[in-house]
Structure to design on (287 residues):
C-alpha cells in the first residue's frame, strides 16, 4: 500500500520589524505549518526594505532545523502590479519595473515561486488586456534569468479582472516566449466565484483544468472558502467551512490524489483580530 505524501500546507504570514522573515517562519511554525506565503513588503505600495535587513539567513537556518523546504515557500507579488493596464503608459512601466524587482527579491531570498494577479484591463476590453499582459511578461522575462517561476493566479472575474477562465491563463502562457518560467496558482474561492462548480463536481473541474492548462503547471493552491455563491464574480474569502464551498469540499481539494504534490496556502480572514490558521490547518489535515 502506498504511503500518502505529507500535506504541504501553510498560510499567508506577516513579515514585519524587527524579526522580518525570521518572524514569518516562527509565525508559520506556530500554526503547525510546513510552508508559508508572504509579501516582500506592503502589497499596496512600492516601499521595500533591502534584502540585507530581512534576516534571511536566520530564517533559512530555522527552516532547515524545522524541515521547511525553501522550494515550497511562496512569495506573493503586490496588488499594485497591473500588467493589463492600457490607460496610462507609466502604470504599465511601473508594473514591469516592479515585477522585475520582485523577481530579483524573491531570488535573493532563495524562494522560487512568485504568485501574480494577471491584471485588469480597466475598460479596454479582454483581448487588449490579455495582449498587454503578454507584452509585459515578455518584456520582463526576456532579460531575466533568475530561477523564479511566476504563478498566474486564477481570478474571480470581478470588475475587469483577467485570468478568470482556464482558457485565458492558457492563452497567456502560450504566447509568452519563456513559457517555462510560468505556472499557475489556483484559488478555490476565485474559481468558485468565477463559475467553476467544485462543490458539485470537483473531479470534473480538475479534469478541465488539466485539459486546458495542465496539472503539471499547477504549483500552488490557495485554499479559501467563499462568502458568495457560485458564479458571483465577487472574490470575498470566507473561513474554512463558513462559506458556500464548505469544509467537505475543501478537504477533498487538499487530499485529492491528483493534487498531492501541490502547495496549499490559506488566505482566510482573521477572527476577532486573531489568525485562524492553526485550527484551519488542523481541520484540513484531518482528511
Amino acid at each position: 500500500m502506498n504511503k500518502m505524501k505529507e500535506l504541504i500546507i501553510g498560510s499567508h504570514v506577516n513579515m514585519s520589524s524587527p524579526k522580518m522573515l525570521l518572524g514569518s517562519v516562527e509565525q508559520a511554525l506556530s500554526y503547525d505549518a510546513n510552508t508559508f506565503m508572504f509579501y516582500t513588503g506592503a502589497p499596496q505600495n512600492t516601499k521595500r526594505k533591502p534584502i540585507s535587513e530581512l534576516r534571511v539567513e536566520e530564517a533559512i537556518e530555522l527552516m532547515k532545523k524545522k524541515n521547511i523546504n525553501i522550494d515550497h515557500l511562496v512569495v506573493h507579488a503586490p496588488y499594485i502590479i497591473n500588467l493589463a493596464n492600457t490607460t496610462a503608459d507609466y502604470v504599465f512601466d511601473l508594473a514591469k519595473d516592479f515585477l522585475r524587482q520582485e523577481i530579483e527579491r524573491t531570488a535573493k531570498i532563495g524562494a522560487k515561486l512568485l504568485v501574480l494577479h494577471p491584471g485588469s484591463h480597466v475598460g479596454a476590453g479582454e483581448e487588449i488586456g490579455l495582449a498587454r499582459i503578454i507584452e509585459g511578461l515578455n518584456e520582463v522575462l526576456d532579460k531575466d534569468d533568475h530561477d523564479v517561476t511566476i504563478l498566474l493566479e486564477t481570478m474571480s472575474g470581478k470588475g475587469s479582472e483577467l485570468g478568470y477562465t482556464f482558457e485565458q491563463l492558457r492563452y497567456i502562457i502560450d504566447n509568452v516566449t519563456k513559457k517555462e518560467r510560468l505556472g499557475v496558482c489556483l484559488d478555490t474561492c476565485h474559481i468558485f466565484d468565477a463559475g467553476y462548480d467544485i462543490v458539485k463536481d470537483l473531479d470534473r473541474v480538475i479534469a478541465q483544468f488539466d485539459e486546458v492548462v495542465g496539472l503539471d503547471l499547477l504549483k500552488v493552491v490557495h485554499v479559501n472558502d467563499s462568502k458568495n455563491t457560485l458564479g458571483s464574480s465577487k472574490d470575498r474569502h470566507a473561513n474554512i467551512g463558513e462559506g458556500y464551498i464548505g469544509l467537505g469540499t475543501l478537504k477533498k481539494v487538499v487530499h485529492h490524489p491528483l493534487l498531492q504534490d501541490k502547495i496549499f496556502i490559506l488566505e482566510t480572514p482573521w477572527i476577532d483580530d486573531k489568525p485562524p490558521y492553526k485550527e484551519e490547518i488542523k481541520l484540513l489535515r484531518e482528511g
